Amino acid sequence: MRVLIVEDERRLALSLAKGLTAEGFAVDVVHDGLEGLHQAGQSAYDLVILDIMLPGMNGYRVCSTLRAAGNDVPILMLTAKDGEYDEAEGLDTGADDYLTKPFSYVVLLARVRALVRRRGQGASPVLRAGSLTVDRGARRVARDGAAVALTAKEFAVLEQLALRAGDVVSKAEILEHVWDFAYEGDPNIVEVYVSTLRRKLGAGLIETVRGAGYRLVTRA
Ligand code: CA
Fold first, then answer.
1. For the purposes of burial, counting CB atoms within 10 Å of the CB of 109, is it exposed (0-12), middle (13-18) or buried (19 or more)?
2. Environment of ion ligand 1 (residues, CB < 5 A)
3. Given a cut of 90, is residue 44 above it in pLDDT?
4. What pLDDT score was predicted for residue 191?
5. Which fold is adopted by the domain 124-216?
6. From the CA of 50, how far away is ligand 1's center (Å)?
């Protein structure tokens, strides 16, 4: 899952980015509203965390401009102080949720996960494909009921396949959602993760579709 943070308080932006990265999100950070607007239109984000008071263009305008352009990415707005900015206004401009500073990281993470999930497969946090269950709420994976321990990045790759179980997901799509724009390494990193997932989850679950990508088998 890929997140864009638009926040001019650099320390806050950095700590959010660090925390979310540790949870397996791919995170991009910009510190200016106009840059945020531009960047949000460039990549396939699963969520935008948007501050309101920003240089360049304020968060309300960034949000309403994105919506006017037909961009329906989930947006979590950060308001500076309770009551100082109108939360209803944030929601009016098309934000999906808001959080008042200062907030606890745990609360932020819960909201982020809920918003990202809502976009995916309705309310249920558990994705199923045959004998495999991927619990996006608890970040747990099991095959035939037996828990499989995955790193945050391995989980993120599997999540992309599980969200579209039975369909081919290209390497580029996985890269785009799991790695951030600072990643300039070898796109074949995806292959490395898929082979680790195969080793950990057992054979017959992830098919390679030559020249197209990978498919999570729904009857394995
Ligand atoms: Ca600000």
1. middle
2. 8, 51, 53
3. no
4. 92
5. Arc Repressor Mutant, subunit A (1.10.10)
6. 9
